[in-house]
Q: What sequence folds into this?
């Protein structure tokens, strides 16, 4: 039986929130990792200092928007984890800043894999955003659902993720290549970061603890730990019968439940929201106030407030045998990590 240390795994956007954890877990399992980054290796000490990195981690520069840039990168790799994609809610030019990088990056990587003589499978990081851009209190979402409502004007980030995943599946069409595609669709990815940058989903807790939210809104989130998302990518890579899409999310928590937990967990000395507008009347007030927010944030509020998200995550549990970390543990780990990186000021 071939050992893992003879296998090279390519991870695109290796410095990212999810990707860095994938790199860490792959190294722990004995794999060789070839990660793509924007700058020189010296800019990513949190990757180069990982156990096993000196012997089995190679960081290379690659431009997602450059055609054929990944030809040499993926050659020799058995698996490619394509995680690189922008995550920005408020942008000035959604086509240029979100859709083009997401779609072109995905098709460029797949094009290089099609030329490769070694790649067996690509695992693509998509998102719940490609499944829906708004909760539906009367529906349970599954992998068979597609987001058909987003556009450049309505939730453009969601639109970019949908277009990128569709481009990936369309790439295959009726064609047959020497590799297949498996897609991971995470919800709100939270937890500790290996690098100093602040993950967009973790910003929710930073903003709540810094007093940015004066009110508790009638909104809910499906949380999944970043370490579980990284693990899901590796399991999807290693499991021969893995196929299609995998909705990757654990527990749903309302904002009311999150605030209650933060108080219980010892963060009541922070300026947590006091006014509770998680009601029918409050929904109307918040939707009016949403028009005072930046365009992306405002659209998000109007499509989420007052709606309950429901989804079925049984496929990923069944096919990949993924056991999720408790959401409250993930929240606490995320906050303690943000305190460490000084994204949140410590309060006595």
A:
């Amino acid at each position: 039986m071939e050992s893992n240390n003879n296998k090279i795994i390519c991870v695109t956007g290796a410095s990212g929130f999810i990707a860095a954890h994938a790199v860490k877990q792959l190294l722990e399992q004995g794999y060789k990792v070839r990660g793509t980054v924007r700058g020189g290796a010296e800019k990513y000490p949190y990757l180069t200092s990982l156990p096993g990195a000196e012997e089995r981690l190679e960081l290379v520069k690659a431009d997602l928007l450059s055609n054929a840039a990944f030809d040499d990168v993926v050659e020799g790799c058995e698996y490619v984890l394509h995680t690189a994609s922008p995550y920005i809610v408020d942008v000035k030019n959604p086509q240029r800043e979100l859709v083009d990088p997401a779609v072109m990056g995905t098709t460029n990587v797949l094009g290089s894999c099609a030329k490769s003589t070694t790649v067996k499978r690509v695992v693509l990081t998509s998102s719940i955003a490609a499944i829906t851009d708004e909760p539906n209190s009367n529906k349970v979402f599954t992998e068979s659902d597609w987001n058909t409502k987003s556009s450049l004007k309505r939730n453009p980030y969601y639109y970019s993720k949908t277009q990128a995943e569709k481009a990936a599946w369309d790439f295959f069409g009726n064609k047959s290549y020497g590799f297949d595609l498996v897609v991971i669709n995470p919800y709100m990815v939270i937890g500790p970061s290996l690098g100093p940058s602040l993950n967009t989903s973790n910003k929710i807790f930073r903003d709540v603890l810094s007093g940015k939210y004066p009110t508790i809104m009638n909104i809910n989130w499906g949380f999944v730990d970043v370490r579980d998302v990284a693990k899901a990518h590796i399991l999807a890579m290693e499991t021969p019968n893995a196929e299609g899409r995998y909705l990757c999310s654990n527990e749903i928590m309302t904002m009311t439940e999150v605030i209650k937990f933060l108080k219980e967990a010892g963060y009541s000395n922070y300026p947590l929201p006091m006014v509770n507008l998680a009601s029918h009347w409050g929904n109307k007030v918040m939707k009016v106030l949403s028009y005072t927010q930046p365009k992306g944030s405002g659209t998000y509020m109007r499509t989420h407030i007052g709606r309950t998200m429901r989804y079925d995550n049984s496929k990923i549990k069944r096919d990949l045998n993924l056991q999720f970390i408790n959401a409250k543990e993930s929240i606490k780990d995320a906050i303690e990590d943000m305190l460490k990186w000084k994204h949140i000021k410590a309060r006595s």
